[in-house]
Amino acid sequence: MLLPEQSFSLLYVDDEVNLLSAFQRIFRAEKVNVTTTESVEKALKLLHENEFHVIASDYRMPIMDGIQFLERASQLAPNAMRILITGMCDFEAAVDAINRGKVFRFISKPWNNDDLRSSVSAALDHVKLKLENEELSRVVEERNRELTEINLGLDREVDQRTTDLLNGLICALDLRDTETQWHSRRVSLYAKLLAMRLGMEGQDLIDIERGALLHDIGKIGVRDSILLKPSKLTPEEWIEMRRHPDYGYKLLEGIRFLDSARLVVLHHQERFDGSGYPSMLRGNEIALGARIFAVVDTLDAMTSDRPYRKAVDFDVSKQEIIRCTGTQLDPRVVEAFCSIPETEFRAIRDMLPDNPQEGADGMRWGASIAASRLLRDSGSR
């Protein structure tokens, strides 16, 4: 952008040499650099080599008239304002000048000096306004880029803090229930994989992944004598154990970014036929994230070693999932599950094996993040 104290440039073309001199004298005291030429060919060459803010032209000239010249000038200097100076200008010529030459003003010959100054001044005001708008747009664009970079930084920080918070919650549960230490992390990634196959994306995908990760967080509120009991629970103890979905739902209350995820926590023990708990919800009354979780929870439970039994093969767990279709599990979700190759689930399990002693917690959690990124990058499948 030109600074206020800088001058603007003006090109005037006329085959009458004495008018070129008169034109220059009018603007001698103005902050306008005036260039004049009696040749259209020279004028076009000047436009190729220099920047002009205002272009004025006589109408009647040899080779091409002023309208033809200004039409060419509009292509070479589209941001310049154009003025047509003519001794005769009928209506048709005026329309032609507007349509083809994109003329800003008409000035009649012989011109009045004040009128000429006024027209050029108005043209320069338009140029200044245009330049100021361009500068403002540039500044706004630059500020927007800066704000975008700041927001991206904030998003990364929020994402990191969110990951740290969720990791902290799961680690708190792991300290109490080491038997299934990596179960929550695996099912969260399984759930994300299955949700992607069902066409889910964006925030819905994130909510399901987080809800599956936190599904058992309510067990923090269950007494150790019940949670860690090696033998079968009594009916009274089962009543308390079955409160853990409610405990988890209330524990996450007030954490706004987990509002949707906590529904998965609340519904994760519901069954498709209404036989689950705590509310005996049926079918689509159960949050979709919880219906997805139910399938992958069954998969992980059956393919993981437990003190009281050994893990079974993927095919065996798959057949059990199919058998439970329509009772415990949503048929649509099971159908999507069956369409996913075993290798995709195995890739997640290989990153997060059963043995909680393999490597430091931070390294293993880093593996779960890597698995999550793997799923994110393969979201188009």
Please characterize this protein's 3D structure.
With 381 residues, the protein is α/β, with parallel strands linked by helices. 57% of the residues lie in helices and 7% in strands. It is built from 16 helices and five strands. It has helices at residues 17-26, 40-49, 66-76, 91-101, 113-176, 183-197, 202-213, 224-227, 235-241, 244-251, 261-267, 288-302, 314-323, 331-338, 342-351, 361-377, and strands at residues 8-13, 32-37, 54-58, 81-86, 105-108. The chain has a five-stranded parallel β-sheet, with helices on both faces. Helix 2 runs parallel beside helix 3 and helix 6 runs antiparallel to helix 7 (202-213). The longest helix is centred in the middle third of the chain and has 64 residues, at 113-176. It is rod-shaped, with a radius of gyration of 38 Å. The two termini are 49 Å apart. 33% of the residues are buried.
Name its key features.
single chain; 381 residues; alpha/beta; five-stranded parallel beta sheet; rod-shaped
Mean pLDDT: 84
Termini separation comes to 49 Å
Order of helices and strands: EHEHEHEHEHHHHHHHHHHHH
Strand order of the largest sheet: 2-1-3-4-5
What general outline do the C-alpha atoms trace?
A: rod-shaped
| Continuous helix count | 16
**Structural class of the secondary elements?**
alpha/beta
Helix content: 55-70%
- Total strands: the figure is 5
The main pleated sheet reads as: 5 strands, parallel
Uncertain runs: 1-5, 356-365, 367-372, 374-381
Tell me what portion of residues adopts beta-strand conformation.
5-15%
What is the C-alpha radius of gyration, as a whole number of Å? 38 Å
